[in-house]
Amino acid sequence: MPQGTIRILAVDASVASRRAMTEALAGDGELDIIATASNAATALKRVRHLEPDVVLLGGEVPEVVDLMNEIRASFPRIKIVAFDRARPDLPERIRNLFSFANLRAAQQEIARAEAETPKRARAAFPYRRKVVAIGVSTGGPNALAAIMPMFPADFSLPVLIVQHMPASFTALLAERLAARCAIPVEEAREGSAVEPGKVLLAPGDFHTRVKALPDGRVITTLDQGPLENSCRPAVDALFRSVAEVYGPAVIAVVLTGMGQDGATGAALLKGKGAYIIAQDEASSVVWGMPGAVVSAGVADAVVDLNSVVPQILKQV
Question: Which of 137, 241, 284, 307 is the catalytic position?
């Protein structure tokens, strides 16, 4: 964590949103909004002049992708955080960006899982893969729209997706993906069947997990347990459950997104023999989640967005 306070630049075209950012951090002695900006050009000037620790982005920033790309390229130490008025955990989310506890936990999970798993189970490609699990956040809707149509109509594995998104939007995202894809896409429900060639998208505000039934079928279960990595649904929650049900027969994918959600779960899966794919930095909107997987040393492949599905198909 930076010495002293964490210095924050708040960016949004909406005056009300910038005020809400200030109010969300008011009274926190460790977090200080040092300046605000209403557009990308002004924000970039203030980044260059002030070099804040964090750029806090609202939902109404014209040319936001260009701004984020420039910050990542020229100021890689600066963290980027998305502001959501509906979430009360902004201070915690900012502090978590400066903590390596999640990465240490991931590395420890690898060591534990490898100690518990026979060496034969970790040999390359000894298992028929049975499921694909994908975690994604910032930039996810566009990333999913780009890659999901690449799955062929005869794709033989179920695909489970956690996209960090409010509850009111995940059903619409599932509908949009279904219209573009050769395989069916649905929002997961309590008891949805996990079936070959079907995509299930976790609903907003519910952790989505898988459960094996005595008759051999696998279904999804939903719960509103505590936030994980400041998220619900959480990628780690899904990854832990697929590790329990499918063991090494998993292809896990971590795409663009802020934070470190998915790193600990990917470590657990890696230790069981699963195959882990991380999106590369150049094609990510934010290289937080996939970067955490790579930094934890658990990625089998680090590929650009357009190569994700071809990489999956190589493992099937």
Answer: 137
